[in-house]
Design brief:
With 453 residues, the chain is α/β, with parallel strands linked by helices. It is 45% helix and 11% strand. The protein has 2 domains: 3-130, no CATH class; 134-180 and 206-452, Alpha-Beta Horseshoe (pyruvate-formate lyase- activating enzyme), CATH 3.80.30.10. Strands 3-2-1-4-6-7-8-10-11 form a 9-stranded mixed sheet. Strands 5-9 form a two-stranded antiparallel ribbon. α11 links the parallel β7 and β8 (265-273). It is globular and about 55 Å long.
Length: 453
């Protein structure tokens, strides 16, 4: 077994000595959505609002909210807080969850004793994900106006989507849910920059998401700070769709090349959001230029040859699995071509839960044959450096098992699948059946239920 999986097993045993629900990520990891003033720990729990008043004297309250502190108390007492149902569901099927994987990583496990001995204290997280604004050139099917300015504009123009509960209704994204534009004062972003010098000292992983970070001036403010204040133990990460214009791309790549020279940082991880292959990937992530993105993946690993890696974030949804094997074959090609002394090509397969009509669980059972074929391909190509790792296969099996576990209210969800993507074709001049001809029978089934609900 790989070190990553073994570390998760060790963490599972160590966590259990505190409680059956203890997770270090609740203390040491944070996702900050500064556009709307929301946060969670890892990306699985629902977002909750950050109160503004505590930020005036304590900007670390961006992370150490009372909501999280209550969840921490429940974890110490062995209560499975409802925020973390993602992991409880995975564990209920007998699988290793992200609670174990994340707690087993050094950025978390190194703080085990400090947290157990003083669980009530405010802490600086060592793993931080932040989106500074929602400026983005894509309108991915499972995204929303909170995270994409393109979605915002489309919703204003066309209104809510005609699902059973109106989807991405512009009237919903007001008040606390409104994304604060860059041109306006943002108390959450201001608190972050006050916190930043103190936070920076304790950082091990810092990841910028979006929106599209390559288009965000805050990204380059971080880069400039790091260049002026090198941190040899810092893993610096960004997430991109790799479909921006050449001017933005060249500026961004030039910065990354500077960051990876010498010993400015420990490592730069480039996350690329890509769910499957070809036109099907472009359909899921509307606005994506697939060929450009693929070419830039190879350009990145070639032109930034030191202290860098690239990770594909493959969000597992019911449109991704049909051509997923082609993407995995490409990943093997990249590993064989660019991996030598250390692994430079990675991927992860997080499950999509919302919107529920894009979940794997609404597919007919026979679609599991596709997942079985993918798993067989991965098992036939096990190789620590140039093929697949054991835990990558285990995660894919986990996704298949979850897919097969079924769901409730399936007729409504399948009806919403048709309602959403039928409207998608009208608004975005796409063609579902031309892009996914293999799904014609499923499409007709969903159309039937759309008329019933």
């Amino acid at each position: 077994m790989s070190d990553y999986y073994n570390d998760a097993l060790v963490a599972k045993e160590k966590l259990s000595k505190v409680s059956d629900s203890f997770c270090l990520a609740k203390w040491k990891q944070v996702s900050l959505h500064l556009t709307t003033g929301h946060t969670n720990s890892c990306y699985h729990p629902p977002l909750h609002k950050i109160p503004i008043e505590p930020l005036l004297d304590n900007p670390s309250a961006l992370h150490n909210t009372e909501h999280k502190k209550q969840s921490r108390r429940e974890m110490m007492a062995g209560t499975k807080c409802t925020d973390c149902n993602y992991c409880w569901n995975i564990e209920a099927q007998g699988n290793i969850s992200d609670r174990h994987y994340r707690s087993g990583e050094r950025w978390a496990m190194d703080s085990f004793d400090d947290i157990v001995n003083n669980p009530e204290a405010d802490v600086n997280p060592s793993y931080v994900e932040v989106n500074f604004n929602n400026v983005c050139n894509l309108s991915c099917s499972y995204c929303s106006p909170q995270f994409s300015s393109t979605w915002t504009q489309e919703s204003k123009e066309h209104g809510a989507w005609p699902t059973s509960t109106p989807h991405n209704d512009p009237n919903y994204f007001i008040g606390d849910r409104r994304a604060i534009p860059n041109r306006e004062e943002n108390p959450y972003r201001e608190a972050f920059w006050r916190w930043w010098p103190d936070l920076y000292k304790d950082l091990k992983h810092f990841r910028m998401t979006g929106g599209e970070p390559t288009m965000d001036p805050n990204t380059y403010r971080v880069f400039d700070y790091v260049l002026d204040n090198p941190k040899k133990d810092l893993h610096l990460n960004t997430t991109s769709n790799f479909s921006v214009d050449d001017r933005v791309w060249n500026k961004y790549k030039g910065y990354v090349q500077k960051l990876c020279q010498g010993e400015q940082i420990e490592h730069f991880m480039q996350f690329v959001s890509l769910d499957t292959w070809g036109s099907q990937a472009e359909y899921i992530r509307h606005g994506l230029d697939f060929d450009l993105a693929i070419n830039r993946c190879e350009e990145f690993v070639r032109d930034v040859p030191y202290r860098s890696s690239l990770t594909f974030i493959i969000t597992m949804n019911n449109l991704s699995i049909l051509s997923l094997k082609k993407l995995l074959e490409y990943i093997v090609y990249l590993r064989k071509t660019y991996t030598d002394t250390y692994q430079r090509i990675w991927f992860d397969t997080p499950l999509l839960y919302t919107p529920d009509w894009q979940s794997l669980q609404i597919l007919p059972k026979e679609y599991s044959i596709i997942m079985d074929d993918i798993i067989e391909y991965m098992e036939d190509n096990l190789d620590e450096m140039h093929g697949f790792k054991d835990y990558e296969v285990l995660k894919m099996k986990r996704d298949r098992d979850w897919m097969l576990s079924g769901t409730t209210d399936i007729e409504r969800k399948q009806g919403d699948f048709f309602k959403f993507f039928n409207e998608h074709d009208k608004r975005r001049t796409t063609n579902f059946l031309k892009t996914f001809p293999e799904m014609q029978s499923f499409w007709q089934q969903c159309e039937y239920y759309a008329k019933q609900h």
